[in-house]
Queue: 4 jobs
Job 1
Amino acid sequence: MKRTSERLAAIAPSATLAVDAKAKALQAAGENVIGFGAGEPDFPTPAHIVEAAVEACRDPKNHRYTPAGGLPELKAAIAAKTLRDSGFECAPSQVLVTNGGKHAVYTAFAALCDPGDEVICPAPYWTTYPEAITLAGGVPVVIDTDAASGFQVTIEQLDAAYTERTKVLLFVSPDNPSGSVCPPDMVRAIGEWALDHGVWVITDEIYEHLTYGDNVFASMPTLVPELANQCIIVNGVAKTYAMTGWRVGWMIGPDDVVKASTNFQSHATSNVANVSQRAALAAVSGSLDDVVMMRSAFARRAQTMWTMLNAIDGVGCLEPQGAFYAYPDLTGLLNRPIDGVTATNTLELADLVLDKAKVAFVPGEAFGLGGYGRFSFALGDENLVEGIERFAALVNG
């Protein structure tokens, strides 16, 4: 008899967390490792948010169960914040507060997918998306993009991927891992395509505040209002407010979908930790001054990393437009000796670089598109420069 279900046994471990764990294990053993793997800001959570949590700890009402779908005042604040930041209007009843953005992603797919339903999933994709789709009973239909297209999916590709089983289109901008931002006109065109084909859209807006230069975030249901009845927004406080460890996310959708999702959560986890919800309330209802500061630092680091990567022989990198990742093409480093070792793919290259240079990045295979690597610039400026210098020194011999 099998000891675990086929459903869970088939789940691939998170490659991004695995790389981060390997780097931290080496650091714990005394190695000077510089990690470009983890997708979390290196800034502390802003002080006013922490203080709100401290006060919440002292209030006995936060020591008890609260509504499974989220504190009413937080749901109202999320609705107000969504209108403020993306122009999309929703009622608090359309908001479900979840245990982090990742939980919102899974819940959204669980709410929409029946066994065999197809979900169009452009690559490169965040490692969790295909696993969440499969766990929910759906079938990921992967569309490849590349650097030449700016990692943007086309309407022609959507047409080619569409079948009578297509239920959902996954849309992410700003994107993890590519760092691309979809222009508003293309966001609108994709939304209209989904509307015309009767396809649901799950749009992940977790990086909405992290765009650089002339690139701007655009919310699909704002640009295509008729899509609101077949669209779920997933978001959270993790990236914008440097709150990855607080585990507060949310989904916004039509009333019937949110009601079903709330019922599901009531059995799966009940409510999100109340202290974390109080901290999230302070975040989403407060000033964006700290966000502006962090975005400025990320923009500076993006330029530094982009310039340094493109200076390496065999590496080509598009300028990061959003999130906090560069996604360079590393195929020029494959099948050539590097310090006596030849890597034939970016999985092998990542291991080589970690072993020889003590620099950790996530290989493109983790995101469904080999030949590339994800380098997070959510780390201090000095470590960023030293890490890329080590990488360059190794691969250039």
Job 2
Amino acid sequence: MIFNPFTVARRLRKIGLIGINQRNADYVLRYNKRQFYPRVDDKLLTKKLAIEHGLPVPELFAVVREEHEIKEVHAKLAEREKFVVKPAHGSGGDGIVVIVGRRGDKYRRSNGVLMTADEFNHHLSNSLSGLFSLGGQADSVLIEYCVEFDPVFDHVSFRGVPDVRIIIFQGYPVMAMIRLPTRMSDGKANLHQGAIGVGIDLPSGRTCKGVWGNELVTEHPDTEHSIIGMDIPHWDQLMMIAATASEMSGLGYVGVDIVLDKVHGPMILELNARPGLAIQIANGNGLQHRLEAVEKLKQLAPTAAERVAFAREHFGTV
């Protein structure tokens, strides 16, 4: 079969696939004012704003801002068997440590490896120095509730917590996917580290297609269970949370990441002002036609409920 670049280009235009340069020029730079970036780049500020707006987030156990606070944090966590450590300005999952238990004075990570108190302190110190932060800037560290994912995902996740990403444009949900951790991703729901992205049909909340790296998949590579046709729990609530969170951020083009806890239900994990584009491959659809449909509206709907209703009516995948 002869490769024809013009045929491929026409096909990509037809489905409305956008690239990173178009995303940045036409949407990120145009609709995201720089003054609002700290609201999503600083996870501590994001959490505070979400609480102020009545949006659910994982409980915050401790914050470490200075080196001298590192030794004190062990006492604050003495009664905690499980928690998550994350840099406030981290990116791509770097610097996140998930603790799932203890053995004496050691902490057990989600991959089963034990971490000594000195190793824990060293990690916190590296985080404060900016090793994991955007631009290498000095950082602070959040220690928060460890999400226990909804049992519906037991067979399609490997040692980690899946999360749902919904891209919001001008307050309207335009595309969604669930990210499933794998052995390759070391239990992290990050596509660049080897997690699976599975598209979600906005009207139904049902998974439709999957991508793992550059490979289209229908099964989880570690569990061999189907990832297609799953109904995402609390789908109505997830859509409303995402649409409301975009208002909180002040950004016109934003990705909202939500986890599903088996006890507490949906909770906002973080927001992203530059959400990746693999979500298009996971859905088998491009973003451009949906973004243009919102831009063509003569007036934006005033409530999150109306914007969600519009998305469910117009942006079906299956």
Job 3
Amino acid sequence: MIKLAVYNREGKEVDSLKVNKDSLGGKVRYALLKQAIVMYHANKRVGTAAGKGRSEVEGSTRKLFKQKGTGNARVGNARTGKRVGGGVTFAKKARDFSKDMPKKQRRLARDSAVLAKLLSENVVVVDELKFDKPRTKDFAAILNNFKIDRSCLVTLKERDENVFKSARNIYKVDVMPVSELNAGDICNHKKMLFTKDAILSVLDKSE
């Protein structure tokens, strides 16, 4: 059982939560976690690098001049990769690098990533995050109250535009609703800041 303190926005403890490891899979599955992270990075690759091969460049396929008797080195057609304007030798082609995992595996990998953060004490829980209007200064003050000075993933139960806009100009701080939470983004940040209802939602969906 993991005990989590719940803080208010000023950084004072106001409540506590008990997290059962079994609700997050019981243990950190490192092999599955690696598979999910590889998928995460692969799906970010654009794969649009491409060049034209000999068959794709414009030009005649006729031999430029006869093989012998001209005094010049023998040549083929104008499309060869050895001539200016010819095709690229072994040209790159656009590729789809994307990978996929079954839904249950993705969810289990996400739970393993959250559990790993909990075990390493890199999770902070705040009772609520509400802003009347977007204000970066106020959001930065909250992070300072929790002594969060490195990359942080802020997780909300539902998307909140004011919270999102308040955090978007802070370096290496991202805001994400529970529905979009994934192992790749979790492992890509040093700290996690959950609202209380967000972490309860994660635990409920894990069971």
Job 4
Amino acid sequence: MIPKVYTRPEHNISRDQISANALKVLYRLKNEGYEAYLVGGCVRDLLLGREPKDFDVATDASPEQVKQAFRNCRLIGRRFRLAHVFFGRDIIEVATFRGAGDKVQDQRKVDQDGRLLHDNNYGTIEEDAVRRDFTVNALYYNIKDFSIVDYVGGMDDHRAGMMRLIGDPETRYREDPVRMIRLVRFAVKLSFSINPECEKPVFQLADLLANIPAARLHDEALKLFLSGYAVETFEMLRHYGLFAHLYPLAEESLSYEEDGFPRLFIAKALENTDKRIAVGKTIAPYFLISTFLWDAVKNQVEQNTQAGLPESVAFQQAASAVISQQAKHTTLPKYISTAMREVWGLQVRFSRRNGARAFRLLDHPRFRAAYDFLLLRAETGGADEQLAIWWTKFQAVSETEKQKMVSALNKNTPRKRRRKRKPAQQKQKQENE
């Protein structure tokens, strides 16, 4: 296969845009006599004028040879060996060209659905190119002459704004079903259209995601929704039937929404997430996942209370059941599931404001997240708007005003009449009679 080579005047990538550490790796490998290229998303993003999140290098040097060239290197991976070159917290990933074609086909292990299980074969740059997932991710920036090497028509697709798989789409999806999720993520992130031949099999093969480890799907889900394009990603995932395989309880809730809830509730949460990312604010993954599963928790609480369980116990058991079911699809690390439980549990406590309860709740470590959750519920019709207004004001006023607000609540709350206890002797007499 003869590649198309775009010389330096034919593209817009400059070394000034490339990280200094990536350049060190590229030049070291070149000086050691190896081929060295920037490859993948960093080349794609540089062509778009964006700042890449990270820089990946491809080379004909074996992982062991890369390790010999860099003292600050560590080899990782079992399915495919990679070299990580460390510069403090910055990591440059170096991958040896992967092999492809008939000569290694018998060595590649797949399961009954065609999913690739083991692939530790090395090859040439040409073989490496055809093994990558999308054409726009298979462009190579050559440090020798600053050209871009294209074996699969990636530059044409890049200029056309088109997401296209390399090879037969159905075969590539079966090899790794996560490619369907990546297709959506890149199409939304880059504002690219999807090639019809790559789009069609997704509707039939979405079920293959059930074969992917829950831990990997959790990582992919975070990339989907915490990249600043959550709203569009959510809509596209649902369009292709992929969201149901990531968060089936949320999809079930969306099927019987009432007055826009929980659809509006989830959509608003996604919108707020995008806004926070746009202005550089931090995002807590547990908060967004909590919104996905809130309706399922509420329904389970209602069933538990109807069965006679006290409200607090009903909430605890509902949270455990929902988290357990979700963890079968996307892993929920303990730090995330614990935070979710607290945010859900505090929703009940917001209505209990008399006495010292409001002050104790204000001091809870998870108060702010739970309060934001309450605001979101109130905004979308899932909670009392006046309750949210009260808590907003309660945080802003002085301690004296806080006491007045709580006192006003105590006055307006009717006290329960205590039954007058009868003397023990009189009670015994009545029982004898």
